[in-house]
Amino acid sequence: MFRILFLALLCFQISFAQKTRPEKRVLIFSKNAAWAYRHASIEFGAKKVKEYCEQRGIKADISEDASLFNDENLKKYSSLVFLSANQDVFDADQEAAFQRYIRAGGGFVGIHSSSGVERNWKWFNQMLGATFKVHPPYQDGTVKVIDKKHSSTKMLPTEWKRTDEWYFFTPMTNKLNVLMVLDSTTFKSNVHTQNYPNAWYHDFEGGRSFYTAGGHSEKDFEDPLFMQHVFGGITYAIGKNKMLDYSKNAKFEKAPARIITLDPGHFHSALVQKTMLAGLNPEVQIYAPAGEDLNQHLQRINSYNTRKEAPTSWKTSTYTGSDYFEKMISEKKGDIVVMAGNNATKTDAILKSVESGMNVLADKPMCINTEGYEKLKTAFKVAKEKNILLYDIMTERSEITTTLQRELSMMKGIFGDLLPGTPEDPSIIKESVHHFFKYVSGSPLIRPQWFMDTKQQGEGIVDVTTHLVDLAIWAAFPETPLDVKDAKILAAKRWPTEMTLEEFGKITGAKTFPDFLKKDLKDANTLNVFANGEIDFKVKNVHSKVKVLWNYSTDKGGDTHYSIIKGSLGNIEIKQGEEEKYMPTLYIKNSKISEANLNVEFEKLKAKYPGISLVKTGTDYIVDIPTKYRTGHEAHFGEVMERYLKFYKVNNLPDWEVPNMLLKYYITTSALELANKQK
Fold it and tell me: How many CA atoms lie within 13 A of 177 on its CB side?
């Protein structure tokens, strides 16, 4: 009996010992967004913290590589030490890995501007405890230590005279254990109240979080007291140095999101469901008026469910009462409202949906005039207040030639610097050609009659140009938040595509033009559809031109795209004409570097996209792209949904997305206003 008890106790001790890490190791992370203010003390401070830790038995790695934020790598670390990291530094996958690390029992230490990381991510604000807002000039001041029992403060004087940027935060969570406060009478500030928090700690969702606002200058990392203070925070965050337990994440996992489809007047509503995606509930609630738009949508969903290859398994419930929108708002039978339909009512629907607390994924355009733009601004403001996600469907970012064009334009060794261009010779040109008659999912596309009404669909200059303006900004200012003040509309024009009654009937099934289109008739048999537009604009110093053309149909190819981005070392161009057999083809042209150097630089891109290669043709180069990357336009809708679900999982959009969406719609709606003035 004694032997059995002894063995049981031994097994328990071994099991317990296995839960303790074999070593103490921290990751000192100091990535700053490319556009963010970067503290000059980072490299020196990181080196000093590493030395200090390793002299005391804690191993330390230094990195600014956010790709390290994955489960397998983070498991190595007893704590993460953010040393003056700043602004938007993670993608959604990295954010999710960071969350799982903390919830599995990981430690976190934030130093100085790390309170400015991911400023729009509510979870990070709650985990760290606050978000940096502003500071007065660098100056002397006094810090009062109000808790001297903590490992980070027990060595400090009760009144600690220091020189720093005295940080002011908003918002601050109310469950912090404050360690130090500022004597705000000892420095000049218009915002700090007396005894304002300056360092704190708290347990959060299974992990341990410590933050100190000090650390602006290199001198701080030569100050023995400050280094002891930081090291004490690190030892708190490490705690008992237990192995992470990822099973604790289960209670935080979101249930699969349920889609609500609102009035699916456009075939894009169905395309987001063309494939089943992890994280989506197969049950979908539809709210829409009865009619042909709804019937066609249900037929498409049924075709996906019944196809032989990779059938989907959607289960739809439909409400068709005249109060369908009010019913959706009151019932809230889902998590994400998908909108792709009549654009005249879309902006109001977006605003009312977010006001009711519902996440929205909306097809472009979110608004079609300046009045709608003002409502859209309100919608984004409300979405932020309610901590929900409002996002538009930008499928063209998923087109592989567009993706690689952007990647190449970010490679200094191949592209150089983006040229500013001029109104006569823009640095970025994007053009697309579309057709009213086309095939979708293998069948001729039947369009609703209102699609040809620019009061309901929107003019071409505010519709498809949304994609083109988005791509221009996305390429010229990667992951950089912009403001409408950065943009200027230089010129804009609009013109119609003529459509006969026979052509109209072929794509709608109608035998006559409806009354709401009579305002646009050129004559009894010809409809003017103002589907074409052109915008010349600049953002900061970069000149761009976008142009959209709508033809009725084509005998060759389908919708096409042209794009060029001009750099100091060469141009990156996409063509999709007859010469390319109507396949989007990516070129490097006018290259000013040797073929040998170009190939060396291109190897870096090949590492990220295995299988691509360069093929020389005359003086130009074609980027040969394997078929596996050419997923096709219809598949891009699912890819957008997949990205959105990643944002939904962590409940956060990249910091640049919202301001740049607003900028995009400011440009398109302002351009329409300018074009109308030039009639």
Answer: 15
pLDDT tens digit string along 418-462?
Answer: 999 999 999 999 999 999 998 877 778 889 999 999 999 999 999
- Superfamily classification of domain 17-250: Class I glutamine amidotransferase (GATase) domain (3.40.50.880)
Determine the topology of domain 396-677 in CATH: Dihydrodipicolinate Reductase; domain 2 (3.30.360)
Query: For residues 583 and 253, what is the distance between their CA atoms, to the nearest angstrom?
Result: 42
Radius of gyration of the chain measured on its C-alpha atoms: 29
Give the pairing type, strands 428-435 and 560-566.
antiparallel
The residue among 74, 26, 48, 60 whose CA lies nearest residue 237 is 26
Cα–Cα distance measured from residue 458 to residue 373, given in angstroms and rounded to the nearest whole number:
13
Whole-model pTM: value is 0.93
Q: What is the pLDDT of residues 529-540, one digit of tens each?
A: 999 999 999 999
State the residue for tokens 């570097």.
Answer: 593
Give me the count of residues in the chain: 679
H-helix or E-strand spanning residue 244: none
Residue linked to tokens 């697309």: 432
Q: If residue 400 lies in a helix (H) or strand (E), which one and from where to where? A: helix 400-409
- Non-local (6+) Cβ contacts of 639 within 8 A are 395, 398, 631
β-partners of residue 385 are none
Structure tokens at 399: 């087109």
- Distance, in Å, from the CA atom of 615 to the CA atom of 617, rounded to the nearest integer, reads 6
Cα-based distances in Å from 332 to 21, 279, 351, 358, 531 = 46, 18, 15, 8, 36
